[in-house]
């Protein structure tokens, strides 16, 4: 599931919330506007099924993808505090404390398999929604906003300053100021290399064996086995036999 950049114009239609039924029109000052709408957000009927409401009030990893939710709910606040505490400890460990670093990050993540290495510093929202495959490597300053699942396959490499952002806000001013958010999952399949300073937006899947060039902004799914570049990120070419035979890596 993904939302191309042009589809963001219609995002609010997907996440409709009955503001006027519950809150009415707000004609007050700017500060009163924010205060009134934050109050309304916390009492909204999100027009979900009973099961969805139970999940919304459950653990942080039970946020429903594509559904608006209130991140100031105490369950989510406590989940983020737990993560920040562990991340602070992780980021301030001496490089020689490799075993402790590994144990801390494994305890933070939802699941992980085999060996992987994440260089300091690292940042995330909850950690419990991050799922890591074998032989994953991240250079410095990886940031993952994991309000919903982020799944990273085997043999995935990240350059420095990469951002994976599952979180988004409504384009509608009232709900955005009110504090509502939504999340869409991100999947990075096996053997992907993501270059430095790449940004991956909510709902994206990057297919196996692909390479994302440094500085790209990924706004739609990328197929398997390609080189993709730019803002917005587009497929440049397929990776083929020429790449296997290449020995000169000069420009």
From TrEMBL:
Q: What is this protein called?
A: Acetyltransferase
Q: Which domain of life is it from?
A: Eukaryota
Entry's family note? Belongs to the transferase hexapeptide repeat family.
The protein's enzyme class? transferase
Question: What InterPro entries does UniProt report for this protein, alphabetically?
Answer: Hexapep (IPR001451), Hexapep_transf_CS (IPR018357), LacA-like (IPR039369), Mac_dom (IPR024688), Trimer_LpxA-like_sf (IPR011004)
- The answer to whether UniProt assigns keyword rRNA processing to this entry is no
Which keywords appear in this protein's UniProt record, sorted alphabetically? Acyltransferase, Repeat, Transferase
GO terms for MF: galactoside O-acetyltransferase activity
- As recorded in UniProt, its EC number(s) are 2.3.1.-
* Record-annotated Maltose/galactoside acetyltransferase domain positions: 60-114
């Amino acid at each position: 599931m993904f939302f191309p950049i042009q589809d963001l114009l219609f995002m609010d239609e997907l996440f409709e919330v009955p503001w006027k039924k519950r809150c009415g029109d707000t004609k007050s000052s700017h500060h009163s506007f924010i205060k009134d709408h934050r109050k309304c957000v916390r009492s909204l009927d999100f027009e979900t099924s009973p099961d969805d409401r139970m999940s919304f009030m459950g653990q942080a990893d039970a946020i429903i993808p594509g559904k608006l939710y209130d991140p100031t709910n105490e369950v989510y606040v406590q989940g983020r505090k737990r993560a920040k505490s562990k991340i602070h400890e992780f980021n301030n460990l001496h490089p020689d404390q490799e075993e402790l670093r590994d144990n801390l990050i494994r305890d933070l993540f939802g699941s992980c398999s085999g060996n992987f290495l994440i260089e300091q510093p690292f940042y995330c929202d909850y950690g419990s929604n991050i799922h890591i495959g074998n032989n994953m490597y991240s250079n410095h300053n990886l940031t993952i906003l994991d309000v919903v699942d982020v799944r990273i396959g085997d043999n995935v490499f990240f350059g420095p300053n990469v951002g994976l952002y599952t979180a988004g806000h409504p384009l509608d001013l009232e709900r955005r100021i009110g504090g509502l958010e939504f999340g869409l999952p991100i999947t990075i399949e096996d053997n992907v290399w993501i270059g430095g300073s790449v940004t991956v937006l909510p709902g994206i899947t990057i297919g196996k064996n692909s390479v994302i060039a440094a500085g790209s902004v990924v706004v739609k799914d990328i197929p398997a086995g390609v080189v993709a570049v730019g803002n917005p990120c587009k497929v440049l070419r397929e990776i083929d036999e020429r790449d296997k035979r290449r020995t000169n890596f000069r420009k």
